[in-house]
Structures are given as C-alpha cells and as structure tokens.
Amino acid sequence: MQPRLGFLAIVCTAVLTGSAETRAERGKRVVDEALGALGGDRFRHMGDRIESGRAYSFFREQLAGLSVAKIYTRYVAGSPGELAQREREAFGKEGYDVLLFTESGAWEITFRGARPLADLRYETYKDSTLRNIFYILRQRLDEPGLTLYSQGADIYQNLPVEIVDITDADNRTVTVYFSQTTKLPVRQSFKRRNPEFKDFDEEVTLFSKYLDVGGVKWPFDVHRERNGEKIYEMFSDTVEINRDLTDDRFTLPANLKLLPKAK
Q1: Which residues are 49's β-sheet partners?
Q2: Buried b (16+ CB within 10 A) or exposed e, 115-131
Q3: 15 CB contacts (<8 Å, ≥6 apart)?
C-alpha cells in the first residue's frame, strides 16, 4: 500500500508541476490583468490626456514648491525604445510657467522666452517616462525584447500584491507592484545611476485614488520618492482623456525668443 501511495504522490506532483505557470507566464498574466482593469482597448487607444490639480515639490522632505498644475499629454507613433509622447506641464494660476517635452527636445517657457533644458534633465525625463508603467502599458507592450518576469506574491502595506519585473531590450528595468484585488498598479521602482556620485538612486512612485475617466481607470494621487525621500506629489482634481489635443499645444511659437540652453 505504501509504495502505491508514494507513486500516486509522484504522479500528482508531476501533474501539478506540468500545469504550473512559469515566471514569465505569470508575469504576462498579471500585466494582462492590469491592462484589463485599466480599461483594456480603451486604455491602449487613449490618444491624449489632461490632468489638472495641485503639484507639490519637496527638498529633503520639506515643502519646496506648491502650484496649480495642468499637464497635457499626447501619445504619438515612435520607434521601439524611443520617446513617443509629448507633454506640456503648465504651472501657476494662469499657466505662464511651462515645461515642454517632445521627442526632439525639452524647454522651459516663461515670459522671457524658451530655454532648452539641460541634456541631463531631458535624458532623466525620457528614462523616467520609458520606465513608467502606464506608458509601458500604453506604448511599449509590443516592443521586441520586452520581458515580463514575476517575482511572486507579497504583502505591501497590508495589501496583497503581485510583483513583476519589466525589462526592455536596452536592459532598463522597472519593478511594479499590482494589487491582487483590483489588479491595478500601486507602486513602481527602479534604479538610475547618479552621474555625480557614480552610485545608484532609487526612484519609487506610488499610485492611488483610481477613478473612472471615460472608461479608463487613472490614479488621481501620485507620490514620488528618491532614495526614501519624498520629492513630488500630484493630486488631480480632474482628468480628461481624448480631447483631440493638437500639435500647436506642443510646439514652440515661431515668435518666441530662444534663450541659451540651461546648464
């Protein structure tokens, strides 16, 4: 009797092992579930977005700036691994202080004119965007060489989560925590080399207060940290999608004075 039970145990183990997901399969399933929770095809065909609310910046955990903010984002066609969105960040009640990011460059626009941002700041923006989970789900899921690798389940702030590493063909990796309940992203993190100190900074972004926006779920509260210190928060009052934003909103006016590049 004992040998027979042992044989059955081996058979059951083999069946369970054969039907178990690989880490890659589990990672893909978790990401697919997240995409579905965000709106599926509606999310992937979102053409543009306007987020309005309050933005806070911090230095060494102390409030360094507070502003009314309006962020315009438009997705465009692009090559794998390259920036394929345009973004206009307008600050202040009248929106006179503007940051403009495109595939070809970035500028700070004030009443004095348009000053190109320093190369390092623009490269940091591109790197952060390419590793942003919402940008990945909207623009990069079909890229050659993009891998999804499950790190398994865990508990994060009393919330059961699934953890997935997403790595592109250029070895950029972002680790994303997805709620097991809602399937939505709640946290992402990645490391970036610090050019001054030659070590690595860890960037962490937290997402919460998801609301429905035209059939798409979007986080109205975004909290960002660097090396454990809070550096940015955005609390949106309204979010709109598919507003048919035109190129002129993301183009420098022809008569605007061009200032020397920031250092």
Answers
A1: 73, 241
A2: bbbeeeebebbeebbbb
A3: none
Tokens 């994060």 — which residue?
A: 156
Backbone angles phi, psi at 135, to 5 degrees: -65, -40
Q: Is residue 9 classed as helix, strand or coil in its secondary structure? A: helix
Alpha-carbon gap, residue 247 to 72, rounded angstroms: 11
Assign domain 23-250 one CATH number from 2.50.20.10, 3.90.1300.10, 1.10.10.10, 3.60.150.10.
Answer: 2.50.20.10
Q: Give the position of tokens 């890659």.
A: 24
Which residues, in sequence order, are bridge partners of residue 63? 58
Cα dihedral angle (189, 191, 194, 197), rounded to 10 degrees?
Answer: 110
d(C-alpha 111, C-alpha 103), whole Å? 24
Residue 215 half-sphere exposure toward CB, CA atoms < 13 A: 9
- Concatenated DSSP letters for 18-68? HHSPPHHHHHHHHHHHHHHHHTTHHHHT--EEEEEEEEEEEETTEEEEEEE
User: Rounded to an integer, what distance in angstroms lies between the CA atom of residue 211 and that of residue 235?
Assistant: 12
Question: Using an 8 Å Cβ cutoff, are 46 and 242 in contact?
Answer: yes
Output the pTM of the full model: 0.90
* Of the candidates 223, 241, 218, 220, the residue with the CA atom closest to the CA atom of residue 38: 218
pLDDT digits 0-9 by tens, 208-248: 999 999 999 999 999 999 999 999 999 999 999 999 999 99
